[in-house]
Amino acid sequence: MFEVFGIDNDTMRTFNYGFSVDDKGIVEEWLNERAKTARSSRLIFYRNRQEMDFKGLDAADRNNIMTAIEPEVLIISLGNKLKVKKCQPIVEWFYHCETSDYGDPREDYFLSNALPNRFTDREVQDAVLQFLASFDDSIKGFRIKELPKGENNSIGRLYIETLHKAIDSDELVGINLHQESSGTLKMFSLYPSLMEVLHKGTVLFVDELNTKLHPLLVRNLISMFTNLDTNPNHAQLVFNTHDTWQLSNNSLRRDEIWFTDKNPNGESSLYSLAEFRSDQGLKIRKDEQYDKNYLLGKYQAIPSLKTMRLIFPGVEAAEREAID
């Protein structure tokens, strides 16, 4: 099952959209919305394999969807193609969400070679510098050279240097952008997505946010989304991490922390710290040390580890014991 809650920034209506599927197609699909001043939500559409309810749609839209719908097609997708007004803002919301997968080496490479839009403009460079200065103020500017046709480097036809102040001198020294640390390059690649979602109030999904970044820097990124001064449009950051240092009651609420727990059959369940109950049926207190208690297994979702042993094929037992 997939379910999402969002806001249409044009009308300020909140929506709840979701669906579930199996190998035969769509099992259920629903869309509810609530006006800014309304006390409760109203149904726009609901469908399962036995019924369809389109009471929130105009008659013409309802007839068009019912004529064209297929078991494996989502109503929200079909409605967007048919220009159904109730469906278009939802699909548009998904279009504006950003994803960055630093766990995939190919996408990591692509992201590390991407540039912000209009990066050759001085105004954009200044904005990037201000962002980078929040964690590293050693970069004082950029030097950009457009290469002739047929002469490419790793960022298209642009040769980019970062400028640093020389020691005991006001002179600026340039180094190739890709000679910067992997953490700086990752933050450089995150900048366009961060600015996009913070400006539009949408969602940024990041796989392995903590990779290559100092824990304090990750916490600084999180604070950009939890601080209304830097996030007035209520954008969201959704990320996974194996860094328990981020499990802090100073930076995250209990309902913002989620765990995945794998059972012996290999099936994973997802639950929030706010939903978790102790063996005594008690809620987790908001003043607990989340990181310490997690590693102690209090919230489950930890691996079941055994002593690691290496097998050396072709080595006699006596030699293996000597190696051990």
Radius of gyration: 25 Å
Straight-line N-to-C gap = 47 Å
Sheet-strand content, in percent, reads 15-25%
Domain tally = 3
Main sheet makeup: 5 strands, antiparallel
Major β-sheet strand ordering: 1-2-3-4-5
What's the shape?
globular
Instruction: Report the structural category.
Output: alpha+beta
Number of helices: 9
Compute the average pLDDT.
88
Question: In brief, what are we looking at here?
Answer:
The chain has 324 residues and is of the alpha+beta class.
Overview of the molecule:
With 324 residues, the protein is an alpha+beta fold. The protein folds into 3 domains: 2-96, no CATH class; 101-183, no CATH class; 190-295, no CATH class. Helix content is 27%, strand content 25%. The chain has helices spanning 59-68, 75-81, 88-96, 105-112, 122-132, 182-200, 215-226, 290-295, 317-323; strands spanning 2-8, 13-22, 25-34, 42-48, 52-53, 98-101, 139-146, 158-165, 172-176, 203-207, 236-239, 258-262, 268-272. Strands 1-2-3-4-5 form a 5-stranded antiparallel beta sheet. A 3-stranded parallel beta sheet has the order 6-10-11. Strand 2 (13-22) and strand 3 form a beta hairpin. The longest helix is centred in the middle third of the chain and has 19 residues, at 182-200. The model has no long low-confidence stretch (mean pLDDT 88).
